[in-house]
Structures are given as C-alpha cells and as structure tokens.
C-alpha cells in the first residue's frame, strides 16, 4: 500500500480526538444524543483547525447504526463506508470549482431524492464563500425549506463573504486557532506512535511555524522526518522550515541594549547569506518583542502565557530586565511599525538595517517619576547653595545677584506651578514656574548683615548656576512632555531658557504663535502635570 501522509493517517475518527474545539464537539454530541439535529450548519475558522474533519464526523455520527453517546461506532457498515469515502449519500464538493448558478441548481435537484442507504443525505460544501451570489440565491430556497432527509454543512475560512440570508438559516460554529501547547502534545503522541525521537524544542519550532493549524503542523513534521529520519532536533526543524533561530533574536536584542550597531548589522549579513526571508524574520521578531513586553509585565507568570521552553524563558526574562517598561513598549512599537513598511518595500534589507541603526542610537527613556526626582533634587541643591557658600545666608547671594533680588521684591513671582497671567515682555519672555513646597513664616531665614564672602570667592564655590542646572535637565523635561502631549512639547522645543531661580524658570518665545499656544489653559495643565 502506498504511503499515507501523517495529516491523513492521523485524521480524527471520533469527536473526542478532535484537538482544540471542545466547545463545538460537546454541542454536536449533545445534539446527536438528544436528536436535535439541524438541517444546516456553518463551520467557520482558520485553515487546518478541523472544519472538514468535524463535518465528516458529523455525517458519520448521524448515520451510524450504533452510536454511543453521540460518537460514531466506526465499526458498522455506514461508518466504514463514510470513512473510506465510498458512501453515495455523503457528498463533498468544493465551492470554488462548483460555485456557478448551474452547479447550485444541479445540487438542488440532487437533494430532492431520498438517501440510498443512509439515514441522512449529507452535503459538505468546502470553501463555500467562493460561490457566486447567483449560486447562493439558487441555494437559498432549499436551505429555507430543506427536505427532511438532507443536512447541509458549509465550511469556510471567510464567513464575512457569505450572504447574511444564508448565515441566518444555519447553525454557526466558530472554530478557534489551536493553542501551541495542544499542538505540541498532539505531535508528541504522533512521534511516539511512529517510533521517532524528537526534541521538545524541535516540536515547539514546528508548532510555532504552523501558526495555530494542526494540519500544517502535521505536514511540517512529515517534511522534517523525511530530512532527519528517526531523530529530529531543533536545528533540523529550523533548517527545513526556513525559520530564524530564536538565538538570533536574542543576539539582536543584546546588541541593541549595548548600542552595538556593527554587531547588529553583522547579524543581518548572516541572515541574508543564509537565505532567510527578511519579511518573515520581521514578523517573528515582532512576536519576540511581545514576549519581552509580556515578561516585563507578568514576571514569573509569563511562562504560563508564552509557552516557551525553560531555557528560552530564562533568556527572555534576562533580556526583559535590560529595559524599562517604557523603553520596551516604545521599541516594540517602532519594530511593529517597521514590519508594516517592510511588507511593502522593495528594499527590505536596507529598511531593516536602518531600523537597527536607529534602535542602537536611541537614548534611554527617563520615566516621569525619575525625571521628577531629578528636578526636586536640583531644586533642593539650588536652594541650599547660598547656605553652603556664605554664613550670612541670603545676604551672600544678594552680593552676586542684587538686581535679581531687587526685581523679585518689586515684581513678585507668579504662583507656583502655573504660567504667569501677565502679558509677554517686549522680548517675548514668558515665566513658567515649578511647584515648590509651602514653607511657614517661621522657616524663613533671618535677615543677615553684610556678606562675609566676596563675589569672586562665591563664584569659585558655586559649581553651577540655577540656569545651568535647568538647561542640563531641560531635554528630559521635553521628553516627559512628549509622552503626554506632543503639541505642547513642540511649542517648548523652540523656546530659550533665559533665567532660572529656585522654584521657577523663565523661557523666551521666538514667535507670538508659541507664546499664544503656551498661554492656553490646556497647555498649562499639561506642563503642570509633567512637572508634578
């Protein structure tokens, strides 16, 4: 006898062996047991998840001479005929090649006749969405008032293309994508029965390549067995399927974390020389970034969701700690966006290399919490600066900037945390203040006499002015604003820091447009939120 491929040899012969579709199996078994069989069913779902197989099992179960709890016995004459494909009352047709109106009319004539040997005449129409509208209309009347001895089973991967009038006359069952864990378990059972030694990682590679389709997984396993013989390893699976080893993804992430652009480009060179499909590589790499984000969020519980091998999970957990959650989500978003571009470009290698150079050059993201701590530390150091440089306290500072202090007394600062309500000065200046803790009257320093340090000595003691320190952290302030409101960030990118003192800063706008935008209440609230 000729060889039968594993996808056919291991086709389920009863409902209990159908993988990953328990909600459908239970419903059909209960309906058969209670004799509540519908005249029309619609099976929809991804390819290779069991739609046609379940349709054949249903045809066998309703015609079985000795059913057991809704299951076919597989021993009676009717079961054997249907299993071998010799039953004249079970008709399978392809909607793509029989989708014309004449085909539908011919089918309508066939169902009028009673079954020859079975209890029901079952018509299984695969890829029914390929039928024309005229064919659907010709079939509609039969579906609405079918003969008592006829059951229609329509199978499709694109249910949205089927007219609503057809769908409304059927019981609809949505088949789900089969989880990776269940595919691996099924492959393990198959390899044990076939006396084939297979690594767990090899079966996981096959299952991931099948993308939720058990039939595809069985076909891929058949192909790998032909290559490797009775001993299958993960490297064999990767080589045969043309996939990229997960170690390459890990090496790329390490290169990004270390800002090693030459190493990242060298890995791309290896991929190209190995003949890897860069578009498929990007698709798989996006999935790997998802693994990193999920691991960063869930921690130790991520293994229950990702279904990775223990060694792979340990490495993913290590790499997830190389970045903050903000950095991971930002990088993953950039990679996912490039994946969309890569599908349309004629130069996938260039686009991938540009992406890697961009990611390697990316600056580390500072969280709002860390930025606020830096600002508070800066404010505290600036406030304490006069106390460190002069025993006279406030008087020492006045020796250096008497004009600023005089201006402060004559023109009090605006309230902390808000923009000044006054109009802009002729040079376009605008005061922006930072919220500072309230102090009681008793905490204010007592007036001091003459300064005890000369101005030259004070300049040598002071490491930096408040304005210098404000300019140092200003890029981080803009980064924080960009996470909340890019419009306000854009307005502040073109301003100049002109002055700073403990608790407030002054910026100079280059145009009335920027000044007007920053004076809006919405802009003020965004800046206050970023600074708080």
Main sheet?
A: 5 strands, parallel
Task: Give the number of DSSP strands.
Answer: 10
State the helicity in percent bands. Answer: 55-70%
User: How many helices does DSSP assign?
Assistant: 26
Helix/strand structural class: alpha/beta
Side-by-side strand order of the widest sheet: 2-3-4-1-5
Estimate the strand proportion: 5-15%
Rg, nearest Å: 36 Å
Task: Please give a structural write-up.
The protein is of the alpha/beta class and 532 residues long. Helix content is 56%, strand content 9%. It has 26 helices and 10 strands. It has helices at 6-9, 22-33, 51-63, 77-84, 101-110, 133-144, 164-167, 180-193, 200-210, 214-228, 234-241, 246-257, 261-273, 278-298, 302-306, 310-320, 325-344, 348-361, 368-389, 394-400, 402-410, 455-461, 466-484, 486-493, 512-519, 521-531; strands at 40-44, 90-94, 121-126, 150-156, 171-174, 197-198, 231-232, 429-433, 496-501, 504-508. The strands form 3 sheets. The protein has a 5-stranded parallel beta sheet, covered by helices on one side. A 3-stranded antiparallel beta sheet has the order 8-10-9. Strands 6-7 form a two-stranded parallel ribbon. α14 (278-298) packs across α16 (310-320) and α19 (368-389) runs antiparallel to α23 (466-484). The chain is elongated. Residues 391-410 and 413-463 have low confidence and may be disordered.
């Amino acid at each position: 006898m000729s060889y039968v491929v594993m996808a056919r040899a291991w086709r389920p012969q009863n409902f209990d062996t159908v993988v990953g579709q328990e909600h459908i199996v239970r419903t059909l078994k209960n309906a058969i047991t209670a004799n509540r069989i519908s005249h029309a069913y619609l099976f929809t779902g991804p390819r290779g998840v069991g739609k046609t197989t379940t349709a054949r099992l249903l045809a066998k179960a309703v015609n079985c001479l000795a059913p057991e709890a809704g299951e076919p016995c597989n021993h009676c004459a009717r079961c054997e005929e249907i299993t071998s494909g010799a039953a004249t009352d079970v008709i399978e047709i392809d909607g793509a090649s029989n989708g014309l109106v004449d085909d539908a009319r011919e089918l309508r004539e066939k169902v009028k006749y009673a079954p020859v040997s079975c209890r029901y005449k079952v018509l299984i129409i695969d890829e029914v969405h390929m039928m024309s509208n005229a064919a659907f209309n010709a079939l509609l009347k039969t579906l609405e008032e079918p003969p008592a001895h006829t059951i229609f089973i329509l199978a499709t991967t694109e249910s949205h293309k089927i007219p609503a009038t057809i769908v409304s006359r059927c019981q609809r069952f949505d088949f789900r994508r089969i989880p990776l864990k269940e595919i691996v378990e099924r492959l393990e059972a198959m390899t044990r029965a076939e006396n084939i030694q297979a690594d767990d990682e090899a079966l996981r590679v096959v299952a991931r390549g099948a993308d939720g389709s058990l039939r595809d997984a069985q076909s891929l396993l058949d192909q790998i067995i032909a290559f490797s013989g009775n001993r299958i390893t993960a490297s064999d699976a990767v080589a045969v399927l043309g996939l990229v080893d997960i170690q390459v993804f890990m090496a790329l992430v390490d290169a990004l974390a270390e800002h090693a652009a030459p190493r990242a480009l060298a890995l791309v060179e290896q991929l190209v020389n190995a003949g890897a499909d860069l578009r498929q590589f990007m698709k798989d790499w996006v999935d790997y970034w998802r693994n990193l984000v999920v691991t960063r969020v869930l921690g130790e519980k991520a293994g229950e969701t990702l279904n990775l091998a223990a060694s792979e999970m340990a490495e993913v957990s290590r790499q997830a700690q190389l970045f903050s959650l903000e950095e991971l989500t930002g990088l993953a978003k950039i990679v996912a966006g490039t994946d969309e571009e890569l599908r349309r470009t004629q130069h996938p290698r260039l686009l991938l290399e540009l992406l890697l150079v961009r990611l390697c050059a990316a600056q580390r993201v500072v969280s709002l919490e860390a930025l606020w701590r830096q600002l508070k530390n800066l404010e505290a150091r600036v406030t304490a600066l006069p106390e460190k440089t002069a025993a006279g306290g406030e008087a020492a500072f006045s020796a250096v900037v008497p004009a600023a202090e005089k201006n402060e007394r004559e023109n009090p600062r605006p309230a902390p945390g808000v923009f000044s309500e006054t109009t802009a000065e002729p040079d376009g200046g605008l005061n922006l203040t930072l919220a500072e803790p309230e102090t009681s009257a008793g905490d204010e320093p007592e007036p001091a006499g003459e300064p005890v340090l000369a101005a030259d000595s004070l300049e040598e003691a002071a490491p930096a002015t408040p304005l210098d320190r404000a300019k140092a952290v200003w890029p981080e302030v803009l980064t924080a604003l960009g996470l909340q409101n890019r419009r306000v960030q854009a307005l502040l990118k073109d301003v100049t820091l002109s002055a700073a003192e403990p608790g407030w800063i002054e910026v100079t706008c280059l145009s009335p447009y920027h000044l007007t935008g920053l004076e809006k209440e919405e802009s003020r609230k965004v800046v206050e939120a970023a600074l708080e």
